[in-house]
Amino acid sequence: MGQGSWHIGQGRHPAADEEEALRTGLSLGMTLIDTSGNYGEGRSEELIKRVIAGQRDGAFVVSKVEADDATGDAMARACEASLARLGTDHLDLYLLHEPTPNAEFSEVVAGLERLRAAGQIRAWGVSNFTVSQMDDLFRIPQGDRCATNQVFYNLGGRSSERDLLPWCERHGMPVMAYSPLGGLGASLLSDPVLGRIAAAHACSAAAVALAWTIRSGNVIAIPESGSVAHVKENAVALSLTLAPQELQTLDAAYPLSGR
Ligand SMILES: NC(=O)c1ccc[n+]([C@@H]2O[C@H](COP(=O)([O-])OP(=O)(O)OC[C@H]3O[C@@H](n4cnc5c(N)ncnc54)[C@H](OP(=O)(O)O)[C@@H]3O)[C@@H](O)[C@H]2O)c1
């Protein structure tokens, strides 16, 4: 499990609380921090700079480039800007935030590979790609160097189980699940079914939702929180195994059909 940061550094919580929340997550094993050059126009990356200062090696930093910046010189400039805001000389993973037109895949992959060869990124991946876009990506030279696909996936949003998750498993590729708690303002966590399972484990509904999301071992969930208390609840998912009967109960409450 990692930590998201879409709304971090933008006044939703006091900045000091958000920094402490992310540091707490790092110390509890949620070492991957997911951000993007466009989150809060760079303010998310600037706050993360303060979190990882002095402990860069203890964090796995993921940032993203927008599709509009993915061709020509723009990608290298976007990456430089992210590195400067994060105060680091490399990203552990750089993601294409959303698909470009398929005709641009070769140029995008070539740009990402140039950044990798220059040591500015250790690996690259994509986000919001469909199976058909993944197939097209893998037909491009070096397209199969893609390390992950980051997609919307949670108990209430399971559609990627139909095709994308099996595709990634077949290709030995981990999936990153964004909005694993349902997203900002979602009602998922107040569901009584989740609440009952959480009570049986003496943990929070969030921990159950996250344990469900990462249950296959091939999915990395990146919950976002600017609250130390919530981060501590979320980290419980790392050591929570749901029983087959509990998984069945959740499956019945949130069936794949229709989602
Ligand atoms: N690639 C993409 O296109 C894309 C799209 C969306 C998101 N993302 C990434 O995925 C990350 C997570 O997704 P998300 O922010 O949409 O949604 P999320 O992680 O599902 O939900 C975040 C919300 O849950 C609350 N929360 C966290 N832990 C909680 C707990 N234990 N109990 C109760 N509430 C809790 C947070 O509030 P508090 O701060 O108060 O805890 C926040 O309001 C983003 O930050 C971003 O890094 C990527």
UniProtKB/TrEMBL annotation:
GO terms for molecular function: oxidoreductase activity. Pfam families: Aldo_ket_red. Coiled coil: none annotated. SUPFAM superfamilies: NAD(P)-linked oxidoreductase. It comes from the Bacteria. Residues 1-254 form the NADP-dependent oxidoreductase domain. InterPro entries: AKR, NAD(P)_OxRdtase_dom_sf, NADP_OxRdtase_dom. It comes from Bradyrhizobium centrolobii. This is NADP-dependent oxidoreductase domain-containing protein.
